[in-house]
Specification:
CATH architecture of one domain: 3-Layer(aba) Sandwich
CATH topology of one domain: Rossmann fold
Number of helices: 17
Number of strands: 12
Strand content: 5-15%
CATH class of one domain: Alpha Beta
Largest sheet: 4 strands, parallel
Strand order of the largest sheet: 4-7-3-8
Radius of gyration: 24 Å
Order of helices and strands: HHEEEHHHEHHEEEHHEHEHHHHEHHEEH
Helix content: 40-55%
Oligomer: single chain
């Protein structure tokens, strides 16, 4: 386990080495304080540019790059708006495509209005908007999904500057949870209805989404979605409040040279077609799955374990995108980025929601101090069962789970047991990992 997510400070992003040049290029247009918070937000919009491709996950399932969702959480006035500038830069080709599609709709509307009541109305043209506006309604979203499917399985991308905008897109607060889960799972819309114009379709929901909000708005929005799978499907990137430096952060100027370099990377995404198995990435995913299990055992936290499963899939998808951006070649730096993305996502969720995940109702300031406690770290190098039992009770856990936790630690070779003394001892292997 490379990162300690129990700390209040965010896991530090690794150096942007070989294979991450596109990420470095995009960050060149943002202020330094937004580099780490913005990186997880880049992959949904980049992934929306890949269609007609599937990648094999270690469980042998094939996954498309649609369904990626990320939520940037920071206090008001904390530079979240820089995400919108990056999104517009990356989606210039989407905007150009959408302008042509909108012209078709405008012309169709004109013809419809000019036809008399007794004349046959022209059929609505097949259109697909790749970057729909933020006030898109649920009906328009589903209609557009049909157009994207007819266009060859294209992905529509949404950037919502406020989390409440998801209500309108999904058809109201009650439908948000179901819709977001369907988007992540690339499910059918389940929207076939009989109308005066005929029967509507039931398209596959290929969409990616980024959302921005304050911590308070995020906590309010997800308070009823923490345990139904919606919360785990969303990647979170939390930026804590910074010091009062009195300096206005500087952004880039988005020069022609920048756009020229960016377009080279985007063309790699657009041209990626077919089925792929990225073996070094899948090997890394297997390792990270073991790390997540170890972390859950050290904290005896089932919520953390459940949360990590989909967080790993999201980080793996980011690795697929990096691989395509790097001319379908894998590097060590890309692996380090994938690992960091996984830990940052989990760290962000715990900083914002830890008290709510544990059934509490404290403020965001109190929640930011909480997090999963590595109980083995809190014990001396040599300890007995009673000491762990006391620590579990102090942490709000039952004493009945003490022996099972000891068994898991021994199974993972974190500790050894001496039948002669009745004591447990931390292994050199475990102590070496902690020191590193």
């Amino acid at each position: 386990m490379k990162y300690n997510i129990s700390k209040s400070k965010a896991p530090e992003m690794p150096n942007l080495g070989k294979g991450t040049e596109c990420i470095k290029l995009l960050l060149s247009q943002t202020s330094k304080d937004m580099h780490e918070p913005l990186v997880p937000m880049l992959f949904p919009v980049l992934g929306a540019h890949i269609s007609g491709s599937e990648f094999q996950y270690p469980d042998l399932s094939w996954k498309e790059m649609c369904g990626q969702m990320a939520h940037l959480v920071a206090d008001s006035g904390n530079n979240k708006g820089q995400l919108g500038n990056l999104v517009e830069a990356i989606c210039r080709d989407f905007r150009q495509h959408d302008e042509e599609e909108l012209k078709k709709l405008v012309e169709w509307a004109k013809q419809t209005k000019t036809r008399g009541a007794n004349k046959e109305k022209p059929a609505r043209p097949d259109t697909a908007i790749l970057f729909p506006p933020t006030d898109t309604t649920r009906a328009s979203f589903l209609l557009n999904a049909m157009g994207c499917e007819a266009l060859g399985g294209r992905t529509q991308y949404f950037n919502l500057p406020e989390v409440e905008m998801a209500d309108g897109l999904c058809g109201g607060r009650r439908q948000v949870s179901h819709m977001l889960r369907n988007i992540y799972d690339k499910a059918r819309a389940g929207a076939m209805r009989a109308t005066a114009d005929g029967v509507t379709g039931n398209p596959i929901l290929r969409a990616c989404m980024t959302i921005s909000s304050t911590p308070i708005a995020a906590r309010s929005f997800y308070k009823n979605e923490l345990f139904n799978g919606t919360f785990g499907r969303m990647v979170f990137s939390y930026k804590a409040r910074t010091s009062r430096s009195g300096r206005i952060p500087r952004q880039g100027q988005y020069s022609d040279e920048f756009y020229q370099k960016l377009d080279e990377y985007l063309s790699r995404l657009d041209l990626c077609k077919g089925r792929y198995i990225i073996r070094p990435l899948n090997k890394l995913a297997d390792k990270l799955a073991e790390d997540m299990a170890s972390m859950a055992d050290l904290t005896d936290d089932d919520v953390l374990w459940d949360m990590s499963k989909r967080a790993l899939v999201s980080a793996w998808k980011a690795g697929c995108i990096l691989w395509v951006l790097n001319n379908q070649t894998w590097t060590k730096a890309m692996g380090e980025m994938v690992e960091w993305l996984l830990y940052r996502d989990i760290w962000s969720k715990l900083r914002i929601f830890s008290d709510m995940l544990n059934g509490g109702d404290t403020s965001i300031q109190e929640a930011s101090k909480a997090g999963p406690k590595n109980m083995l770290d809190s014990l001396p190098d040599t300890f007995n069962e009673a000491q762990l039992e006391a620590l579990r009770l102090e942490s709000g856990k039952n004493k009945e789970g003490t022996r099972n936790q000891l068994y898991q630690w021994m199974h993972r070779k974190f500790i050894t047991y001496s039948a002669q003394t009745g004591l447990y001892t931390k292994t050199e292997e475990y102590l070496g990992k902690i020191e590193n």
